[in-house]
Design goal:
single chain, 688 residues, mainly alpha, Serine Threonine Protein Phosphatase 5, Tetratricopeptide repeat, disordered N terminus
């Protein structure tokens, strides 16, 4: 036996039947009033009330659901009848007064309860055809029409046809009852999605003021959370009721609302978040253990120029769950604190997670390279930075690599990076200026003129390259002219010649103009000599294979003018190359203009040195770049072909490595033959 209490629904239908209900009827949003009701109908009641005493209530469906033990549908039917007939009292026992059985009608109700509405329509039509004058109960027809309307409304909502949802709800107010809160939710969402927040708020408020099921009330606020403004949400929260244990029924939701508040602030840096919301999320982060809460706080603070606080929260998030987004946020916080090296290191493993993460990684790289004076970067880090910039074709980072190399007195490398940056972004004036400047430093006057012609009328500083000193031309990068004799420990990027496994030895560099052929005194301070005498001593020391002493003599000769100064710059470059100090050699070559033959000789030697140095330090992409540039001005010797082959092998470009080694092996090079075997072995290791 079903108890009487099981028959009652929790509230009447939304006021205003077909005329209005919760539906909009295309009314203006401006009034923002309570859910619209019919003029002759008080709130909470249908527009037209027919007392149960004056009209018999059709309880057929009620008794059918009771007979099947379908309590859910039974309660929904009771709610519907009470909404239509407020004076009606549900029978204590719906099964007590059973009418004469009608198997066909029972089958129709069965089909209806199963949601087979088209089959119900067919069964009605078939019986009317077979039994002249038979009419289906009005209640069945009404309920069938309502059920079909509900199906249409749900389908429209699923298809995001929100105007149709509102229209169907307006025409079928009997759908809008606490017995079917899902329909009310769909109508409320339709209002919100069509920019009628006031109507949406009123629909949610109607549920909270009239429907009593605790789970549905909490779900109502949850559904409103992503759709309504904070002001509207506060109105919903004001309807909160106490649970039996004295807690607010929406207590668990207030944390989600605070989270949403911070989430909204992430996309709008000007949005002011209430202190209560900030404190709530901090409490959740500290006690709930969710990395997402730490991330919310981190992004909130990084967007508001609080990088130190943001760093704390991002680190907590990474401790709980090391993700790309947590690392991205931490990297941003570190960049904003001028700590790009840490940012690059943290984000490297996530650099390919998505485009946003990659942009932050490259920003860290660019900021790292732009530090003045240039920092000492670990060879492995520099190698991976070079590879990533090259792979991404990022002009900004390539330009910074150019300035970084230039600051370390490596104009050849700098020139390559400026050229790449300009290839990737042809309208970048800064890269064009850097390319012109570094070409001037290496004596490539033709290259400088090409840049100046291309940028004529578009840059004020590019036309002046070559007309002023290195010190003047490099203003803005923190570079000042320094003679190569400065202490090695103060020269960024210098390499100790005593630890290198190679030196640059070039034949034919002895009998130059001004060279002294007789023996040189063992000790002498060249500072006491005139520029011309110091030049002669420098050539003498070069013949004696004493390059460091020769460099000091050439340094004195650089104080001369005209041809003496040009010869001194050339001689000092050769001296440093022979000592394995290519950085110093590059700086010396920029001290005075060299004739084309000498300029080409020094440039070729510097590129060889640069390629070897890059390989020794594991910078294999840079090795190939240097060899490629050298190949444009001089044939590639067998030894350099072998070096290129091993660079390809280190980059696991097996086909390229094999091709280069095979070409070198044809000259009889044993090193090339060994390289071919190394390619074979490495390939087998990869397969295994």
């Amino acid at each position: 036996m079903l108890r009487n209490g099981d028959y009652f629904a929790s509230a009447p239908a939304i006021p205003g039947a077909a005329q209005s209900g919760v539906a909009d009827n295309q009314a203006s949003e401006g009034s923002e009033k309570q859910v619209t009701v019919a003029q002759d109908s008080p709130p909470g009641k249908p527009p037209t009330v027919t007392p149960a005493q004056s009209q018999r209530v059709d309880e057929t469906a009620l008794r059918y659901f009771a007979s099947k033990g379908d309590t859910k549908r039974l309660n929904a039917e009771i709610a519907r009848l009470k909404a239509l007939y407020p004076d009606w009292t549900p029978p204590e026992n719906p099964l007590a007064a059973r009418q004469q059985g009608d198997p066909q009608l029972d089958q129709m109700w069965k089909l209806y309860s199963e949601g087979k509405f088209a089959e119900v329509r067919k069964a009605i039509a078939d019986r009317q055809t077979a039994q002249s004058g038979w009419q289906a109960p009005a209640d069945l027809l009404d309920r069938l029409a309502v059920a079909e309307a509900r199906a249409q409304l749900v389908n429209a909502a699923d298809l995001k046809q929100y105007d149709a949802v509102i229209r169907i709800g307006s025409a079928n107010s009997s759908l809008l009852t606490c017995g079917d809160v899902d329909v009310l939710w769909r109508v409320a969402e339709a209002f919100a999605r069509t920019k009628r927040e006031g109507r949406a708020r009123d629909a949610y408020l109607y549920i909270l003021k009239n429907c009593k099921e605790p789970g549905e009330r909490v779900a109502t606020v949850q559904k409103a959370l992503p759709l309504l403004s904070r002001q509207s949400l506060d109105q919903l929260l004001a309807t909160e009721q106490k649970t039996p244990d004295g807690q607010g029924e929406f207590a668990a939701l207030r944390g989600d609302i605070a989270r949403q508040s911070l989430g909204d602030a992430d996309s709008d840096p000007k949005l002011v978040v209430p202190e209560a919301d900030l404190a709530a999320v901090e409490a959740l982060a500290n006690h709930g253990g969710r990395a997402s809460d730490d991330l919310l706080l981190g992004w909130y603070h990084v967007r508001r120029d609080n990088p130190q606080v943001a760093e704390t929260w991002f680190r907590k998030a990474r401790e709980k769950e090391n993700t790309a987004k947590a690392s991205q946020g931490l990297a941003l916080a570190l960049i904003n604190q001028n700590r790009p090296a840490e940012a690059e290191d943290i984000l490297y493993q996530w650099r390919n997670a998505d485009d946003d993460v990659r942009k932050v990684y490259l920003a860290a790289v660019a900021n790292l390279l732009s530090i003045t004076p240039p920092p000492s970067i670990d060879a492995n880090v520099l190698q991976r930075v070079v590879q990533e910039v090259y792979a991404a074709k990022d002009a900004a980072s390539a330009q910074q690599l150019g300035w970084y190399a230039d600051a370390l007195n490596q104009p050849q490398t700098a020139s390559q990076w400026f050229k790449l940056a300009l290839d990737w972004k042809p309208d970048d004036e800064s890269s064009a200026y850097g390319l012109a400047l570094t070409r001037w430093k290496i004596g490539d006057k033709t290259g400088v003129r090409e840049i100046q012609t291309a940028w004529a009328g578009r840059s004020e500083r590019i036309p002046t390259v070559g007309e002023r000193s290195v010190e003047t031309a490099a203003v803005g990068k923190g570079m000042t002219e320094q003679t190569p004799k400065r202490a090695k420990e103060n020269q960024p990027g210098h390499r100790d010649a005593g630890t290198q496994n190679y030196t640059i030895q070039r034949s034919g560099t002895g009998g130059r103009t001004g060279q002294q052929t007789h023996g040189c005194p063992n000790t002498m301070d060249p500072a006491s000599l005139s520029p011309q005498a110091a030049l002669s001593r420098g050539w003498c020391l070069m013949q004696a294979n004493r390059p460091i002493e020769a460099a000091a003599a050439f340094d004195v000769a650089l104080h001369g003018t005209g041809k003496t100064r040009a010869d001194a710059a050339y001689g000092q470059s050769l001296a440093y190359l022979r000592a394995g100090l290519s950085d110093y050699a590059a700086a010396s070559a920029s001290m005075a203009p060299l004739d084309p033959e000498r300029s080409m000789e020094i440039r070729t030697a510097l590129l060889e040195s640069q390629a070897s140095t890059a390989f020794d330090q594991g910078r294999y992409v840079e090795t190939i770049m240097a060899l490629d540039e050298r190949a444009t001005i001089a044939p590639e010797r067998t030894g350099l072909m072998v070096l290129r082959g091993y660079a390809y092998l280190k980059l696991r470009r097996f086909a390229d490595a094999e091709q280069v080694f095979r070409a070198a092996a044809n000259t009889g090079s044993r090193d090339a033959l060994k390289g071919l075997n190394d390619v074979k072995v490495t390939r087998q290791e990869k397969i295994q």
